[in-house]
Amino acid sequence: METVRYKWPQSLQKVQTKYCAGCGHGVIHRLIAEIIDEMGLRERAIITNPVGCAIWADLYFNFDSVQPPHGRTPAAATGVKRVLPDHLIICYQGDGDIAAIGTAEMIHAANRGEKFTTVFVNNAIYGMTGGQMAPTTLLGQKASTAPAGRDPDNGGMGYPIRVAELLASLDGTRYLARGAVNSPAHIAKTKRYIRTAFEAQMAGKGSTLVEVLSPCPTNWGMTPVKAIEWLEKEMMAVFPPGEIKNTL
Q1: Is residue 213 within 8 Å of 179, Cβ to Cβ?
Q2: Domain range for residue 182?
Q3: Is residue 18 in a domain?
Q4: pLDDT for 104 beyond 90
Q5: CA–CA separation, 182 vs 213, rounded Å?
Q6: Which pLDDT does position 131 carry in this prediction?
Q7: pLDDT at 51
Q8: What SS3 class is residue 31?
Q9: Could you tell me if residue 155 is inside a domain?
Q10: Does 8 reside within a domain?
Q11: Is 160 helix (H, G, I), strand (E, B) or coil?
Q12: % residues pLDDT > 70 (the chain)
């Protein structure tokens, strides 16, 4: 008897991707769509996707979406979740959106324990707008606004922000995890993290966030293969994968 192992998720559109070769967004989209199908929530799922590479997400998901201004994603997700508390609300953000222009919204929504789930795609750089240094850019990592590499002492560039660890101190957060899309094993773990966060949200728990380390070969100036190697060697040393906080 034939056993179906994989099939195209109903929650994912069959369209050609706009993402660059080697980008991790497509894999993350697939995980979200699979989980929504498995949980039977397609008719009650809404994604808020802001300016940045995340803005294309509504092209690929076969459920409702809201496009907030850059950085205001948690504010929009807060409003949608309060109006529709029985819906699955996904706050889909990049590192610039969540930790630069949207820092205040992110911190205060988490502190209030807003009951939506953030999927935070961390590729350590601004992807859509030209490869500028992001809040999560690693020390020594080159960017269009840091051509010699990020240096906290020369130019006051500061240090990489660890968003999940930062939020762990807040009483409003209940589940925080960090996954990656560099290998089948890490992809499987990331799916489990996202599902746990979605289940917590639907059970009425507090704020949940899953950070996903994702390659950006175009703006890192690498081939897709080299980008995966760099993520494993450099990014994971600064942003170690695993559950950061679980008080479910």
Answers
A1: yes
A2: 25-246
A3: no
A4: yes
A5: 8
A6: 81
A7: 86
A8: helix
A9: yes
A10: no
A11: coil
A12: 100
Q: Which two tokens stand for residue 52?
A: 């940045």
Q: What is the mean pLDDT of residues 99-107?
A: 94
Domains identified in the chain, total number: 1
DSSP letters along the chain, please? ---------TTB------SPTT-SHHHHHHHHHHHHHHHT-GGGEEEE--SSGGGGHHHHBSSEEE-PPTT-HHHHHHHHHHH-TTSEEEEEEEHHIIIIITHHHHHHHHHHT-S-EEEEEE-SS-TTTT----TTPPBT--BTTBTT-B-SSSS-------HHHHHHTSTTEEEEEEEESSSHHHHHHHHHHHHHHHHHHHTT-SEEEEEEE---HHHHTS-HHHHHHHIIIIIHHHS--EEEEE--
Q: Is residue 132 part of a domain?
A: yes
Which tens digits make up the pLDDT trace of 144-184? 999 999 999 887 899 999 999 999 999 999 999 999 999 99
Q: What is the CATH number of the domain that holds 171?
A: 3.40.50.970
Report whether 119 contacts 195 (CB < 8 A).
no
In sequence order, the 6+-apart residues with CB closer than 8 A to the CB of 68 are 48, 50, 75, 76
Average pLDDT over residues 6-26: 92
